[in-house]
Here is the input.
Amino acid sequence: MNIEDKVYANAIRVGFVDPITKLPPKDERAISALMCIYHQQKKISWDKVNLLDIDCALTGRMASDIFEQSGSICTEYPLFWSNKEECDAYGDMRPDFVYLSNNLQMTAIIENKLGASDTHSGDQYGGQFGRYIQYLKQSPALEKYIVLLTSRYFLSKTPPWYVKELADAERIQASNKTIKARIIQLDEILEAFCE
Here is the structure.
């Protein structure tokens, strides 16, 4: 059984399944959709989910810092652009989630990575994460987050999967003082899920 299948099996075990058919998630998009629905139904205890930094170390903060602020979550959010340069950079990209507080003081882009896929790494922007950071720079919000959502299995790899790409993007975009790069383990979300 590959790691994605183990994640989906764990989702089934805790009841993190389609509320309509009770069928299990079978891909990253299904996990994202379920997370969106179950967040809105307040079935995820975000105060039990750690925020890690780009060194995969505990920050002492919890995901509730983001998700328990009164706000809206949207999957596959379109990134708006105003000129050709912005369109070329991120016009066709759709982050897995955007979370926006009602008072517009906090904005978070969350990218779900559960397997090997292209992150456009190595380009002038810092890949997919760098493009998202470039977009976030335009937000007037006081708190801005770029969040990698992945499995602890991928974080246990040497080097941790996707973390280098996130760190490279932060460096290329020179954003560490204005945008918090964080990591959330999907495994912890499933552990914090209450049917």
